[in-house]
Design the sequence.
């Protein structure tokens, strides 16, 4: 059979005159290639279960990512720790070289708005125009893009008095549930062309709402709310043009999370059968060897299914119709507890999260080693994640769905003196003191095996009591119940 070759249509070469026209009009011939449905929602993933619409949820179904981040201890603890680390960092708006009067005024306004740049150890002074909930809370919510792939916020403004004049501030950034977004409205094929979001929410009617099977007080059903892009702030993880929903960091550990969940479900089903048994219904025999009644196999099967639901342990709560007998059977084998398999899945889940979030390197299957260089990489990755969020918070050129500070500047300063250089930046993270204990706990759980040198470096960073390598090793051997060199010498003496 002759080999078939695909023929790709070739675009003819442009003449010099056509090329000049193209350069003048900035005409784009290609597209981003993102597959979207009629509502503008990205719909493709190599694993259909992890397609954005299903993974981040839609309407009443909150999706797999919500279940993973709430129900699995390894995932929930790691992602919540990451979000808190980013949220509790030390942030500042630094003075600029050759700062103009407008830039200085904006820096002071933004500092009061965010509650930063105040005296260390002292809480920021309260002001009616401050960001509702504070910067820490907002950055914690924004880091939800690591879980769902994106975090969207709706801006609410108000006018307040500041130093004798009126200013407009985006005082509230209301988080939008990812599963409530029903449509992205596009003009073009890039994020610059995103013009509107349609949100689907329950139509609450006060305390007179109707409780549905989904747990919502729906009242009048659903409402569809159009939010223009000019009132949106969208943080996207693994940003790509044409796809504001990005990619979740949980994508790489989904397969092991799924295997872990299925293992637990199978084990629970087997345990249930072993405990309560299963019902077996047969036709009763008459004294003459015949049958009292005549039932079809399907009718008997339906009765067995009913009996299975009503039998608990050895107690029969189901009486079969006349002419039928019921027996409770119990499997004659012991069901092994899948501890090793569950531990393996946890290791793989945590390893995937380490590789993405903490920048650790794999040493052998099912574990990870942390060197001093990897520790530095972890801090660098945390700072990089924070800087990505701050880029959106400060404002990306040409992207309408970014720029809290850019909006604050544009609303309160004329275009001629617009302070474009002022930026919110990260100085560091305040919870480094717990890093050494974190390493120790992970080492004991066999997820991470840090060396004594790693712990010494971590103690120095966290300003913990400094120990020598010998003291750290002796403490580890003591915790494992192994004799130290000093103990061995005393025994020999």
Sequence:
């Amino acid at each position: 059979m002759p080999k078939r070759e695909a023929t790709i249509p070739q675009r003819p070469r442009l003449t010099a005159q056509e090329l000049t026209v193209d350069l003048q009009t900035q005409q784009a011939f290609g597209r981003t290639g993102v597959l979207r449905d009629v509502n503008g929602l990205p719909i493709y993933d190599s694993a259909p279960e992890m397609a954005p619409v299903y993974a981040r949820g839609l309407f009443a179904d909150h999706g797999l990512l919500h279940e993973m981040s709430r129900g699995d201890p390894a995932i929930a603890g790691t992602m919540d720790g990451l979000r808190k680390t980013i949220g509790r960092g030390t942030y500042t708006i630094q003075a600029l070289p050759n700062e103009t009067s407008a830039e200085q005024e904006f820096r002071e306004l933004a500092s009061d708005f965010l509650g930063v740049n105040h005296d260390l150890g002292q809480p920021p002074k309260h002001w009616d125009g401050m960001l509702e909930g504070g910067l820490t809370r907002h950055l914690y919510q924004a880091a939800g893009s690591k879980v769902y792939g994106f975090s969207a916020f709706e801006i609410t403004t108000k006018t307040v008095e500041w130093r004798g004049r009126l200013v407009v501030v985006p005082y509230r950034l209301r988080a939008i549930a990812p599963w409530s977004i029903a449509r992205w409205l596009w003009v073009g094929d890039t994020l610059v062309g995103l013009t509107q979001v349609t949100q689907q929410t329950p139509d609450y009617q006060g305390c007179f709402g109707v409780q549905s099977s989904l747990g919502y007080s729906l009242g009048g059903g659903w409402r569809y709310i159009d939010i223009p892009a000019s009132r949106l702030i969208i943080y996207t993880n693994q940003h790509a043009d044409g796809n504001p929903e990005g990619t979740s960091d949980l994508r790489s550990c989904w397969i092991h999370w799924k295997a872990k969940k299925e293992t637990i479900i199978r084990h629970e089903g087997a345990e249930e059968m072993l405990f309560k048994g299963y019902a077996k219904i047969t036709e009763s025999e008459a004294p003459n060897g015949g049958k009292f009644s005549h039932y079809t196999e399907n009718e008997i099967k339906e009765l067995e299914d009913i009996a299975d639901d009503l039998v608990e342990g050895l107690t029969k709560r189901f009486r079969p119709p006349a002419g039928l007998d019921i027996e409770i059977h119990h499997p004659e084998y012991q069901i092994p507890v899948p501890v090793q398999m569950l531990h393996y899945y946890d290791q793989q889940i945590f390893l995937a999260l380490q590789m993405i979030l903490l920048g650790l390197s794999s040493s052998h299957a099912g574990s990870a080693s942390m060197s001093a260089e990897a520790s530095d990489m972890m801090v660098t990755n945390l700072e990089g994640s924070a800087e990505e969020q701050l880029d959106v918070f400060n404002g990306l050129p040409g992207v309408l769905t970014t720029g809290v500070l850019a909006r604050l500047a544009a609303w309160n300063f004329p275009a001629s003196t617009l302070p474009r250089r002022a930026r919110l930046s990260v100085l560091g993270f305040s919870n480094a003191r717990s890093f050494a204990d974190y390493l120790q706990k992970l080492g004991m759980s066999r997820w991470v095996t840090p060396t004594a040198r790693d712990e010494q470096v971590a103690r120095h960073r966290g300003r913990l009591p400094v120990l020598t390598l010998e003291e750290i090793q002796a403490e580890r051997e003591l915790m494992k119940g192994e004799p130290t060199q000093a103990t061995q010498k005393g025994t020999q003496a």
